[in-house]
Write a structure and sequence with these properties.
It is built from nine helices and ten strands. By secondary structure, it is of the alpha/beta class. Strands 1-10-9-6-2-3-5 form a seven-stranded parallel β-sheet. A three-stranded antiparallel β-sheet has the order 4-8-7. Helix 2 links the parallel strand 2 and strand 3. It is globular. The model has no long low-confidence stretch (mean pLDDT 97). Bound molecules: 2-phosphoglycolic acid. 2-phosphoglycolic acid binds next to loops.
Length: 263
């Protein structure tokens, strides 16, 4: 696991966007795994800025989002499809036909999950998967107790996640309690996974992810098994980690190495 501790949320967004744009420039037809939530928004803004300055093009990119609410259609204001259009896709040159988000209003959600898995496979697999993390350590909507080998499926949200996401819904609005989410097994198959976390309220989840035992009680701890997992966090999210100086030292050394190799 590579743990990158940065000074603030703006630096986390910049680092994440740079990593994604380097990936796209290395492989213009990359398959990206994308995420919703508040954390990736600043990174998407930075990517839009890179695109506007001709530093990156999404023309040949394919993307798969982690999850979607069950029972909402893609044109619903609260759907993750709508979020992705608003926060990224509408502002760059991506072909929307090549952007995939689980179908929240599928007639047969179970079948839709299988189709989603097949689609990822036939696209050659995900090159880089972006992740946020819940306060309870969830990735995608894989809540604590999710099988670490799980695949794309229908999942029930915990009350904690429902409460955390209530801020996006108005008081009288229907808030789904079910979702379709890629599984932890699906996420672990991405060639690289990049997790962003900022703020003190993520500090315990980050300790459990990086230092804790690998356990279904903290789904993100499964990333310890991934050969190329990058955890990009600000000081507040890193605040409970032991060995912070060691992680900073490794990052300084990595930067020197990358510069000397011209990467
Ligand atoms: P957040 O959500 O970025 O809005 O904190 C992250 C998540 O729940 O995965």
């Amino acid at each position: 696991m590579k743990v990158v501790i940065l000074n603030n949320a703006a630096e986390v967004a910049q680092y994440g966007a740079t990593l994604f744009s380097k990936q796209i420039n290395r492989k213009p037809n990359s398959v990206l795994g994308l995420a919703t939530g508040s954390t990736p928004v600043a990174m998407y803004k930075q990517l839009i800025d890179f695109y506007k300055h001709n530093q990156v093009s999404f023309r040949n990119i394919k993307s798969f989002n982690l999850d979607e609410y069950l029972g909402v259609s893609g044109d619903h204001q609260q759907s993750y499809r709508h979020f992705m259009n608003e926060q990224l896709f509408n502002h760059v040159d991506i072909n929307k036909a090549n952007t995939f988000v689980p179908v929240g209003d599928a007639k047969n959600p179970i079948e839709a999950c299988e189709v989603y898995e097949q689609n990822i496979k036939s696209s050659g697999g995900i090159d880089v998967q972006l992740l946020g993390i819940g306060r309870n350590g969830h990735i995608g909507f894989n809540e604590p107790s999710s099988s670490l080998g799980s695949r794309t499926r229908v999942k029930t949200l915990t009350q904690e996640t429902i409460d955390d996401n209530a801020r996006f819904f108005s008081a009288d609005e229907f808030q789904p309690h079910l979702s379709i989410t890629m599984g932890i097994g699906t996420i672990l198959e991405a060639k690289q996974v990049v997790l962003l976390a900022t703020g003190e309220n993520k500090a315990q989840a980050i300790v459990d992810t990086v230092q804790g035992p690998i356990t279904a009680q903290c789904p993100a701890s499964a990333l310890q098994l991934h050969p190329d997992a990058v955890i990009i966090i600000d000081e507040a999210a890193a605040s409970l980690l032991e060995n912070q100086e060691f992680f900073r030292h490794i990052e300084r050394e990595n930067q020197k190495l990358e510069q000397s190799l011209g990467l």
